[in-house]
Design goal:
This protein is an all-alpha fold. The protein has helices spanning 6-27, 32-44, 65-85, 87-105. It is 69% helix and 0% strand.
């Protein structure tokens, strides 16, 4: 079984979310750093980092309601645009997401 580097996984997730937030706030009003700092805090405290793929797939949603709505808006808007701005990061994200869907579909935990 492959050893998981949790710190690297956290860093990658923080980098991905931060880029999505920055991309969103280039076209929308508001301060991206506020939401980035909040996301970093939540990702940094995530007790499921070793086994989870992304926050959206997690059974426990640790973002407060207001922030959860903000991050959903960011993801919906930025997601389709990430391929043009960060193609490698986006493709890696999609591969992990597809693997997780196949794993769940196959009944593996």
């Amino acid at each position: 079984m492959k050893q998981i580097n949790i710190n690297k996984k956290r860093e990658n997730e923080i980098r991905l979310v931060s880029e999505m937030i920055r991309l969103y706030y280039k076209k929308h009003e508001g301060n991206p750093e506020e939401l980035i700092n909040y996301a970093k805090l939540r990702i940094g405290k995530c007790p499921f980092m070793e086994t989870k793929t992304f926050c959206s797939a997690c059974k426990v949603h640790c973002y407060e309601k207001k922030r959860r709505e903000q991050i959903k808006a960011v993801m919906r808007w930025s997601g389709p645009r990430m391929l043009w701005h960060h193609p490698i990061m986006t493709i890696k994200h999609l591969i992990v997401e597809l693997k997780e869907k196949q794993k769940r579909k196959g009944g593996k935990e």
